[in-house]
Design brief:
Elements lengths: L1 H14 L5 H16 L3 H14 L6 H15 L4 H9 L9 H17 L3 H9 L8 H15 L1 H12 L6 H17 L3 H8 L9 H14 L3 H11 L10 H12 L4 H27 L4 H6 L10 H9 L1 H22 L5 H61 L3 H7 L44
């Protein structure tokens, strides 16, 4: 440690000297010394200064390589890709294949998020299959193909979902993306099967259940759709933000003239989601500082509904931002706790970390602000849909009264048949009002039909 500290102090003094080869060398060695001490962000900042100086700097390629390594440890998918985008060009072809592949994959994702789709597609195609960045690049490729060639997108996502080198969360996203692509192609049975591959109780399982229910409805299997929606009502998934699930459930009941059930579900929507919308709108209208939005995600902060907090914490970009900010906090703590760092150098490191943390919290806050606006708007749209469902329900009840149709008698005449059970690995067990973890996700309804001429399942 003492040797590294001496190198840092000497390099820091040399880096302050006039520009030239000595200053460039000093800055590079300063960054290396910080990296050896475990100060990844502080090292990255000095590597970034070398990269920003351009290819004429003798340490340009070494700095890009080291900056990319530090960015991986920091889980930085914003600052580093923007730096590499400005530096990207022919000189980078001299980097090691794995490093160059990771940079290209990060730039492809950056381009996709920025709407530069043609550029992103070109970068994703340049990531070789034998590199560790290939799965991420394939995911971006699939997202881009969805826009113009959904058949190819489905093939890309299907291959990625079973690719040995892909991580579990990326495979989870690939199954969901495959389900969405197949649904858009009206291949509803295949879409439903894709959603069922998302692991139970995984981060995006609630999305797979809801979207899978829509696919089941479209393929003519309302019992399976209601079973998935029933799973979303379990206490084990009570923190999930799924307002669309209640509207879909109401539609399924309305299609069978089960108006009492429709009204119960609509009342539940009003009870659970309208207060959430009002709470989010109140926060947005108060116009807090951008970094305050980030602080609203902390468990002890009650300014946002619990389900909204939970939904935001699951977002991939928020997960990445959280990891990055936590890395900055940890580095600042290590700098403060190191008794061997001099006062001036310690202050400089803490100042750099503090400024980066402030900027990152504002960027994260801006993203969260946009998501809150989207979530509040979604509930408002669903409330409008709910009013239409309520109107059609009242109209249907009125017609039953006017025609003196005996809905209760029709329901009493119908039998509920036991649903089909797969030959192996499953048992039939009627739901008795208590949710068991082993059962969640496997529910299936058998539904009666109160409409004139209805026969039930």
């Amino acid at each position: 440690m003492r040797r590294f500290l001496s190198v840092i102090l000497l390099a820091s003094a040399a880096a302050a000297a006039e520009d030239g080869p000595v200053s460039a060398e000093a800055e590079y060695h300063l960054a290396q010394g910080l990296e050896r001490m475990g100060f990844s962000f502080s090292a990255f900042a000095h590597y970034a200064a070398i990269v920003s100086a351009g290819p004429a700097n003798p340490y340009y390629l070494k700095a890009i390589d080291a900056a990319a390594s530090a960015a991986e440890r920091l889980r930085d998918d914003v600052v580093a890709p923007n730096l590499f985008e400005k530096a990207y060009g022919e000189p980078l072809s001299a980097l090691a294949p794995q490093r160059l592949a990771r940079i290209r994959a990060s730039l492809a994702l950056l381009g996709y998020r920025a709407g530069r789709f043609e550029q992103a597609a070109g970068l994703a195609e340049q990531v070789p299959p034998e590199t560790g960045a290939y799965p991420q690049a394939q995911y971006v490729k699939g997202l881009l193909q969805e826009r113009t060639d959904p058949q190819s997108a489905a093939a890309t996502f299907r291959a990625l979902a079973v690719l040995p080198g892909a991580g579990g969360e990326l495979k989870e996203l690939a199954w969901i993306a495959l389900g969405r692509t197949l649904y858009a192609l009206h291949r509803y049975a295949e879409a439903s099967a894709a959603y069922e591959n998302v692991p139970r109780f995984s981060r995006h399982w609630d999305e797979a259940l809801f979207e899978g229910a829509y696919a089941d409805l479209q393929k003519g299997d309302p019992g399976a759709a209601l079973g998935k929606l029933h799973s979303l009502q379990s206490p084990h998934l009570s923190d999930e933000f799924v307002p669309e699930s209640l509207n879909l459930m109401a539609i399924l009941y309305q299609q069978r003239c089960l108006y009492h059930e429709v009204k119960k579900v609509l009342a539940q929507f009003d009870r659970e989601y309208l207060p959430m919308r009002d709470q989010m709108k109140k926060v947005l209208q108060s116009e807090p500082a951008l970094d305050e939005y980030w602080r609203m995600l902390q468990p002890a902060d009650a300014r946002l509904p619990r389900a909204v907090q939970h939904d935001l914490w699951k977002n991939e970009r928020v997960v990445s931002m959280r990891a990055y900010l936590e890395a900055l906090d940890q580095e600042a703590s290590r700098v403060r706790a190191d008794p061997k760092l001099s006062g001036a150098l310690k202050d400089e490191l803490l100042d750099g970390i503090g400024r980066q943390k402030q900027l990152s919290e504002r960027l994260a806050g801006k993203f969260i602000q946009g998501r809150l606006a989207d979530m509040a708007r979604l509930i408002e749209v669903l409330e409008g849909d709910k009013e239409l469902i309520a109107f059609e329900t009242t109209k249907g009840e009125k017609e039953m009264l006017e025609t003196r149709f005996d809905a209760d008698g029709q329901l009493a005449s119908q039998q509920l048949h036991r649903p089909g059970v797969p030959q192996a690995g499953h048992e039939y067990w009627p739901f008795d009002g208590e949710y068991w973890p082993d059962e969640i996700g496997y529910y299936r309804y058998t539904v009666k039909d109160a409409c004139a001429g209805g026969k039930g399942e």
